[in-house]
Q: What sequence folds into this?
């Protein structure tokens, strides 16, 4: 009888330990809040959150000069990991949208973070950092800065609602940020990455300044994409953007450059036009 009782107690003890271990594991794997914003959609207040699914790792940190390199433009001083967007609405189930897969489309991400997760700026880089980064305590001073704002809402598809924000997913030489827009629209009321009308099944990837130009445009807008002579280029690329009924249309035009020495990079004639 005593043996059975001892065995039963041992079983209970092991079960309790396993339960506590599972509880500790669950608690240690709770999402980590990176940013939370309130947004009003059709008169109702919602809460949107950027959450790390596990503790993020440093990326392009202030400990050395790596943050000055081209792949770190827009990502310094940052962190990387498994990132999701969460949308909370009164009386509705929370909506989750994983942002990590979007970075597969990013170019020239800072190593070794590429293909391993999402990269997100944590603290802003300041003009004075170039002279101060060798000074004692520089990294500690950076870590005491306020967190960078990521979810800066605007109306990129011009549907009358500022319910989307730009997310940088990569860079091109040197430091040209490539970005997508994430949020909701009147055509798609669930969290999603925005597309062009020409390619509805692919994320629309633009330079960061092109998204800015589109958000401020009252009509179609033409924005430079790649300049004559940039990294030896003998062509000039221009992107034309417009919206119609909540759809985004994007066209890239490529021009041949004339003699750089005489024209200072002026473009010559159209050699290619492509909707994307």
A:
């Amino acid at each position: 009888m005593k043996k059975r009782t001892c065995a039963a107690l041992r079983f209970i003890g092991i079960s309790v330990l396993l339960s506590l271990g599972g509880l500790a594991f669950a608690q240690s794997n709770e999402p980590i809040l990176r940013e939370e914003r309130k947004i009003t959609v059709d008169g109702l207040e919602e809460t949107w959150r950027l959450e790390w699914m596990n503790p993020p790792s440093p990326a392009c940190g202030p400990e050395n000069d790596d943050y000055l390199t081209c792949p770190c433009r827009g990502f310094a001083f940052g962190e990387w990991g498994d990132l999701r967007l969460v949308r909370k609405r009164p009386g509705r189930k929370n909506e989750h949208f994983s942002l990590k897969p979007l970075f597969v489309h990013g170019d020239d991400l800072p190593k070794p973070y590429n293909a391993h997760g999402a990269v997100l700026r944590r603290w802003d880089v300041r003009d004075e950092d170039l002279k101060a980064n060798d000074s004692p305590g520089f990294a500690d001073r950076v870590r005491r800065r306020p967190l960078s704002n990521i979810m800066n809402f605007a109306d990129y598809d011009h549907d009358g609602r500022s319910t989307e924000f730009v997310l940088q997913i990569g860079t091109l030489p040197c430091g040209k940020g490539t970005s997508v827009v994430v949020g909701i629209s009147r055509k798609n009321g669930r969290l999603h990455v925005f597309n062009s009308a020409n390619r509805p099944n692919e994320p629309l990837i633009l330079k960061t300044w092109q998204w800015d130009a589109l958000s401020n445009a009252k009509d179609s807008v033409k924005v430079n994409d790649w300049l004559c002579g940039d990294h030896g280029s003998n062509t000039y690329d221009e992107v034309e953007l417009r919206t119609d009924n909540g759809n985004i249309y994007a066209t890239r035009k490529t021009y041949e450059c004339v003699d750089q020495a005489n024209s200072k990079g002026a473009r010559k004639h159209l050699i290619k036009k492509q909707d994307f």
Summary: The helical segments are 2-28, 129-132, 138-143, 208-216, 260-263.
